[in-house]
Amino acid sequence: MMDWLSGWLRDIITVILLAAIVDLLLPNKAMQRYARLVVGLIVLLTILSPLIRLFAGNFNERVEDSMTAWEQAGSINSVQMPTLQQISKEAQRLSSERQRQAASLAERELGIAMAQEVDSRLGSTGTAVMVKLSEDGKSIASVLITIPPPEEQQADDQTDEAADNSVQPIDIAVSVTVDEVTSASSGDRGEEKDEEPTVVTAEQQSVIEQALRQGWGIAPKQIQIRTK
Amino acid sequence: MEIIQIVGLGLIATVLILVVREQKPMFAFLLAAFTGLFIFLYIIGRIDTVISMLEQLAEQTGIPSIYLKTILKIIGIAYIAEFGAQIVRDAGQEGVASKIEFAGKVLILVMAVPIINVIVETVLGLMPPGG
């Protein structure tokens, strides 16, 4: 009992001493009034502490809890200015996005132009060209050309031609089908060709390669050709 | 004997300011601001002794550290606001100076919010329920 009483008194005396020193340290009268209010509240809390401890449990923790909660709320409320790093990261993201869009636009436009050129050289319609730009977007990495399936007439011509020239399957993308074609080339060639979509005549291939080389400077090994 | 140095610095600065003010009021203000800043920073280190004494006191008697933290924050806010207001007032901007002091007062009062919270909560908890 005596211990508790002396501890309580010691707390009160210390807090009042602190309050006096704060009063001395404060620079001017106007501030003193406000600081005195806060310090007075602290003194009140210290004097009340046995009562509070009796009724409300451990109140020091509650003071600290409410203090930290309040500080966090204050920091959430404050306006978040974006840092320079955030801004530059955002700028990088935007510019890479823009480059990607520009590259896809260029790929589409090149594809359309190449398709028109190939169509005009082959005399066909409906050729689809997929252009892929290289990583830095400055050169063409690969070109995938899908020419429409030959008409019945053309198919007959081509089978004749194929009989003369020995058809070369060109598709590089699907190696399995190439194997099939070469292995099956001893069989019925015309029938094979009807169901095999990857066969393009050497003449068509050379016309396309020439067109692309003259128009856009694309090496033949970057070109893949297939029929629908 | 630091007080002699500081008073000497203040006197010299005052004379220089009076001389310069006739020709260039701008430089007079800069000189005044710099002198104030120098003295403030020179002597703010000395407050360290007082603060460490306060900390020691709080540690020995075991009062909650949150009290000391609040009190030190109050002192800091009061000093900084007062200092800024003085410099602005020297430049003749009484309005801005009083706004700075106002901000200091509000921030000091804001320090009391958690303490008031706890007191109110406890007092409400003391009430008999349903009474």
From TrEMBL, chain A:
Keywords: Membrane, Transmembrane, Transmembrane helix. It comes from the Bacteria. The chain crosses the membrane at residues 6-26, 38-56. Pfam families: Spore_III_AF. This is Stage III sporulation protein AF. It comes from Paenibacillus cellulosilyticus.
UniProtKB/TrEMBL annotation, chain B:
It comes from Paenibacillus cellulosilyticus. This is Stage III sporulation protein AD. It holds the Pfam family SpoIIIAC. It comes from the Bacteria. Keywords: Membrane, Transmembrane, Transmembrane helix. The keyword Transmembrane applies. Signal peptide: none annotated. The chain crosses the membrane at residues 6-21, 28-45, 65-85, 106-127.
